[in-house]
Write a structure and sequence with these properties.
- 45% of the residues lie in helices and 12% in strands.
- By secondary structure, the chain is of the alpha/beta class.
- It has two domains: 181 residues, 3-Layer(aba) Sandwich (Rossmann fold); 101 residues, N-(1-d-carboxylethyl)-l-norvaline Dehydrogenase, domain 2 (Orthogonal Bundle), CATH 1.10.1040.
- It has an eight-stranded mixed β-sheet, sandwiched between helices.
- α7 packs across α11.
- Bound molecules: nicotinamide-adenine-dinucleotide.
- The site of nicotinamide-adenine-dinucleotide has 26 residues, from α1 and α10.
- Nicotinamide-adenine-dinucleotide binds next to α1 and α10.
Length: 301
Amino acid sequence: MNIEDIRRVLIVGAGTMGQQIGLQCAMHGYQVMLYDIDLAALDTAQTQIKMYTGHLTAQGRLAQGEVEAVLARIIPTSDPQQAAEADLLSESVPEDPALKGKILAQFNDICPAHTLFTTNTSTLLPSMFAEATGRPAQFAAFHFHQFVWESNVVDIMPHPGTAAETVALLELFARRIGQIPIVLKKENYGYVFNAMLSALNRAALSLAAGGVASVEDVDRAWMVVMKTRIGPFGILDVIGLETAWDITEYWAKALHDHQLQANADFLKNYIEQNRLGLKNGQGFYTYPNPVYQQPGFLTGE
Ligand SMILES: NC(=O)c1ccc[n+]([C@@H]2O[C@H](COP(=O)([O-])OP(=O)(O)OC[C@H]3O[C@@H](n4cnc5c(N)ncnc54)[C@H](O)[C@@H]3O)[C@@H](O)[C@H]2O)c1
């Protein structure tokens, strides 16, 4: 297989990440099957993707005249058979190893033999479900960052059984869709950027969950000292509180870590109030125009 043979991309899971990865591929000329088990999620995805094209044209990243063609390249479907005709699969279902393994095995049965399989897992390792793919040599983690067109670094993380050819193809493909590939030399929980971000999120959540400092003060301290436009809780809103909870809860249980469990419970409390983050307009902050972007926030006046 060579890079020209990759023309059709299958996105499995049309949530926060699947929408962005699908749109990024379509903007770079690829045919995209956007698959989700949930019809309502597919409707939301289409609305969200249209909204993203509005932002992208306003930012000058996408020409207005291209929008229709880009959208036409994205085909939403809940039919796995229709979705399966692809050369590269990018999986973005929730962070649950059993679910990811099940879905990858399901698509192994119906995708062509040449299809490359990738996972966008944030914190798991590809070796956890390499066998489930039925094609371990053609499988690696291919992990994006939000927003895919702005934070355009993609981790390529092979497991011990990934073929060198798969890594080389993914590197080329990453460049073709406007991403900067970071190829890991070995498996590592959290890749490169996420390994650093997880430590920050853990510290921020521990401060707020432990009643040491408010959400706003944690962000204020980080933003002022690091000269950033967003703090850890603003980032958690962008990630989505359900995804952040999935990850924190999984590791709290796996490591029997009491602080992580307190952090997961803290997140759960927001989720139970339907505060899911940027995706539904309310999380730690309220959108649009969250208070941390308003004058006076940094000085706390
Ligand atoms: N949110 C982030 O910033 C971010 C960044 C990088 C990687 N990730 C990873 O990407 C993955 C997805 O995260 P997300 O934030 O996009 O989640 P999300 O909850 O926004 O979306 C997940 C989607 O998967 C769908 N789904 C659930 N079960 C399914 C099934 N059996 N078949 C098909 N679709 C199914 C859901 O309907 C939903 O639309 C996770 O592994 C996460 O760790 C997330």
